[in-house]
């Protein structure tokens, strides 16, 4: 009897610990590092004004972090002689940018508050600050993530959606991360900024019928059927402005990736794409809410993981 109630108590306590550790908070650094957020913001603003595309690249880093074993900065761990991380995975290799900017932010933050602010939180805040630097609406980022001591090349290859995905596949891959179809469409609106390499849209511009023909012709000029894999094209009409032009492009059959146009191709998400194309405010608020949910995927908190001293390697 006594031992039964002890184990009931233990289970209850474990449950409380699990709930507590799953909690992030907007005020997490208010006491321990009151200058953290301003430090990140000014470094991001400087990087984006030097290179506007960097805003897109930092936003994408947070997404590629969260979808692979949770928002734990695993994506930042660089390969070494005896460690292969996520950077060499198919979706990331030759494509992710911004690692140097993140290292610069971390150095600034370490200078004001040593061993306090995680790389995973830096990615979440830098993503928000990038959106804002490019004209998007501000939103509150929840904080308190800790950094992993591991990464997964296998999960990076399996869990990040491919640009060849159809709508059902996209819905499924977000749903496996606890995100709704609305979240998936809103988050895809991140493609309102940034650039894509020819290799990722070649099959679309040489053969897909649901693509505006004059747009396709202009893309073919800088993306031939063979060669020039790395040639860049903007993801929407205004690649340095965080607006809702992406959704207007989808209505005009000008989605650059196959996966983009899947959101408006006669299926269940057409109505939402129309709504976001006509209301920047609705897109902005759904995007912010979805970013907060994405930013909570699989987080390490409390005593889990560590606060890395350098984002590219474990302590
Ligand atoms: C819905 C499934 C998605 C697919 C299939 C997808 C795929 C891609 C691909 C193939 C690229 C171009 C990479 C290159 O050519 O180097 C790209 C770029 C980008 N993606 Fe996505 N993505 C998706 C969702 C997201 C989400 C949820 C976000 C952020 C919340 C995001 C943010 C970005 C940004 C900002 C860029 C441009 C990056 C830059 O210019 O450096 N994507 N995406």
Summarize the structure in words.
The protein is an all-alpha fold. It has two domains: 25-160, Peroxidase, domain 1 (Orthogonal Bundle); 167-293, Peroxidase, domain 2 (Orthogonal Bundle), CATH 1.10.420.10. It is 48% helix and 2% strand. It has 14 helices and two strands, in the order H-H-H-H-H-H-H-H-E-H-H-E-H-H-H-H. It has helices at residues 2-21, 36-50, 53-66, 99-112, 119-133, 153-159, 167-175, 181-188, 202-205, 213-220, 245-251, 258-262, 270-278, 280-294; strands spanning 195-197, 232-234. Strands 1-2 form a two-stranded antiparallel ribbon. The radius of gyration is 20 Å and the shape is globular. Mean pLDDT is 94; it is low at 1-21. The structure holds protoporphyrin IX containing FE (HEM). Residues 53, 56-57, 59-60, 63, 95, 97, 161-163, 165, 170, 187-188, 190-191, 193-197, 200, 235, 257, 259 line the site of protoporphyrin IX containing FE. Protoporphyrin IX containing FE (HEM) binds at residues 53, 56-57, 59-60, 63, 95, 97, 161-163, 165, 170, 187-188, 190-191, 193-197, 200, 235, 257, 259.
